[in-house]
Design brief:
211 residues; Antioxidant, Horf6, Chain A, domain 2; 2 domains; five-stranded mixed β-sheet; three-stranded antiparallel β-sheet; 20% strand; binds benzoic acid
Length: 211
């Protein structure tokens, strides 16, 4: 089953480094940043785990819970976390799912046989409180993810939801947003009383912080 944007993500029960979870229940009313790794005790993964732990306050400010996965056991994860903390100068507190039988990795199509038959690639799933998949990214085993982009994309998703706008290339909070083509000018005048700029009939921008 290919997981598409807007789909309800598959639920699962699993052991993690912070105890057993039922995934949907664990997400609760928050968002989730579910990300997979090839293996414990590998260099790129160690930096990514450390970066996620260092950004704990940034994720919490957005009501996003990080949760990792690699196809190793809880015992291996726990020993590896000690190394992550030592080498990345952090304290990793979020759960890492144990998936030694590849059940969850297969469910989420994290195993790409062209990369490895047993290790998960670097998948990212941003999941909203309705348990809908809102964004996915897939990186190869050899390339670490960009966490600035992960936080930026979360900001863009949450801003789009809150304000009914789309966000342009390289958008950052505080910058102008785009009025979706589905909104007529008449409706835009009501929705955005601060006014908007019509660069082209299909390209209208608005200062969402001026409202
Ligand atoms: C790593 O995390 O460093 C890594 C894992 C598998 C293949 C290549 C790199």
């Amino acid at each position: 089953m290919t997981l598409l944007l807007g789909d309800t993500v598959p639920d699962f029960k699993a052991d993690t480094t912070t105890g057993p979870i039922s995934f949907h229940e664990w997400i609760g009313e928050d968002w989730a940043f579910f990300f997979s790794h090839p293996a414990d005790f590998t260099p790129v993964c160690t930096t990514e785990m450390g970066r996620t732990a260092q950004l704990a306050d940034q994720f919490a400010a957005r009501r996003v819970k990080p949760i990792g996965l690699s196809t190793d056991s809880v015992e291996e994860h726990l020993r590896w976390i000690e190394d992550v903390n030592d080498t990345q100068n952090t304290t990793l507190r979020f759960p890492i799912v144990a998936d030694p039988d590849f059940e969850i990795a297969k469910l989420y199509e994290m195993i790409h046989p062209g990369e490895s038959r047993t290790a998960a690639v670097r998948s990212v799933f941003i999941i909203d409180p309705d348990k809908k998949l809102r964004l996915s990214m897939t990186y190869p085993m050899s390339v670490g993810r960009n966490f600035d982009e992960i936080l930026r994309a979360i900001d863009a998703l949450q801003t789009g939801d809150a304000k009914g706008v789309a966000l342009p290339a390289d958008w950052r909070p505080g910058e102008r947003a785009i009025i979706p083509p589905s909104v007529t000018n008449a409706d835009a005048n009501v929705k955005f009383p601060q006014g908007f700029e019509e660069i082209r009939p299909y390209l209208r921008t608005v200062d969402i912080d001026a409202a």
